Amino acid sequence: MNGFSSAELDQFAGDGFVIARGLVPNAMCESMKALARRDLAAEAQPLEYEAQVRYPGAPASLDAPGGRTVRRLLQACARDGAYRDWATSVQLAVRLHQLLGPRLELSQAHHNCVMTKNPAFSSATGWHQDIRYWSFEKPELVSVWLALGPEHEENGCLWLVPRTHRMEFNRDQYDEDLFFRADLAQNRKILQTKIAAELDEGDVLFFHCRVLHAAGQNRTALTKFAAVFTYHAADNRPLAGTRSASLPDIPLG
Ligand SMILES: O=C(O)CCC(=O)C(=O)O
After folding, report:
1. pLDDT of 155-178, one tens digit each?
2. What are phi and psi of 226, to 5 degrees?
3. What is the number of domains present in the chain?
C-alpha cells in the first residue's frame, strides 16, 4: 500500500497540508455520494442545517426559504459502513501513520461527516483553525477531506494558508466566535499567502488542525459533497468533559 513520498511528508511538515491526488476510485466516490443524496432526500438525522451555523449567506432560520438546507450529514461512521470502512481503511491508515505515529484513533466527535454545499443556499465559512474548537492534550490532529466531486473556487472549495500551523496568534487576532479577523491589517498580511485547494473527485486533502482555512459559497448549479474525518495519536487524549471526549474514538489498525 502506497504511502506519502518524502517530498510529500516535507510538504505536510512545512505547509501543514498535502493533497493525495486520485487516491479513491471514482466508483467509490459515486456510491458515497449516492448514499449522501439518499440521506439528504430523507433528511436522515443527525444533520446540521445552514440555518443553524448562521454563517454569511445562510438562511435566517429553519422556517425561512431554504431553511432546511443541510450543511453536514453528521456521524458518517455510524451512518453507513461505506464511510466507516473508508475512514478506517488500510489505504488511509498507512498515510496517517506517517503523519501521526504508530497508534491512531478516529475522533467521532469532530468532522466525521459528509459536508454538503448546496448551490442555492450555501454559506461562506470564515478563516479559522479547527483546533480552536477542539480540546485535546496536544494540538496535533489531522483531518482528511475526501472530495466526492470536483472542488474549485466557484463551488466553494477550501482555501488554506500554508505554514500557519506553526504560527502563534494572540487572542485579539480572533473575533468572539474564534474566527481569525480578516479586517485586521496584521491578519490580512498573513492571509495574502492563501491558496485554493482545488480537488478532483477522489483527491484527498490532509490538513493539520492548526492550519488557517476558509471556504466560499457554492455559485454553481450542483451540490458539492466531501467526506471529512479527523484523527489523533492514541496517546493524545481528548480532555475529559469536553465535546472532544463526548463520543468514543475508533482505533485504526
Ligand atoms: O466547506 C466549508 O465551508 C468549510 C468547512 C470547514 O472549514 C470546517 O468545517 O472546518
Report:
1. 999 999 999 999 999 999 999 999
2. -145, 140
3. 1
